[in-house]
Design brief:
This protein is of the alpha+beta class and 159 residues long. The protein has one helix and four strands, in the order H-E-E-E-E.
């Protein structure tokens, strides 16, 4: 027969320890879920910014496609000559004048790199009609109030 006067409360201590363990597991689960939700939101913002930068790059390529011999690359209004070797890239310079303002806050600059042969057979032919202009399109976009921003670059050879 069990003498109830000599119990020391072991069941109470064990149940309190189990309750503490369950509380720790529950709190860590809530924190993990919150972190995953923030990560998913940040990825969505980055994807939106990437889409904006891609859109701006396409606008820049379309603009470069429309240039003839009359395009003026005077280091303003987003149209730049290529930076000399060792110089600061245009897309990093603080005074760079970006073009465009697309729906997703994208903007771009165009750099005229120089002439390249239209195809491999042109390397042997020095005719002016055998060369195409090569451009670097640098585009960037930022999702407002999120800090999510993306920059992309493409090289475009005019037809």
């Amino acid at each position: 027969m069990i003498n109830r006067n000599h119990q020391h409360g072991a069941a109470l201590i064990v149940s309190l320890v189990m309750l503490l363990l369950l509380t720790v597991v529950g709190v860590s689960s809530v924190r993990m879920t919150s972190l995953q939700e923030r990560m998913a939101g940040n990825m969505q913002f980055r994807t939106t910014a990437f889409e904006g930068a891609e859109e701006a790059a396409r606008f820049g390529e379309q603009e470069a496609q429309g240039f003839g011999d009359g395009a003026t690359f005077n280091d303003s209004n987003g149209l730049y000559e290529t930076v000399a070797s060792g110089g600061e890239p245009r897309w990093r310079a603080s005074g760079t004048d970006w073009r465009g303002d697309t729906e997703l806050e994208g903007e771009y600059i165009l750099e005229q790199i120089g002439e390249v042969p239209r195809d491999p057979s042109c390397q042997l032919n020095a005719a002016a009609t055998c060369f195409s202009m090569l451009y670097r399109v640098t585009a960037r976009a930022e999702v407002p109030n999120t800090g999510a921003g993306v920059m992309v670059q493409t090289t475009y050879k005019a037809p």
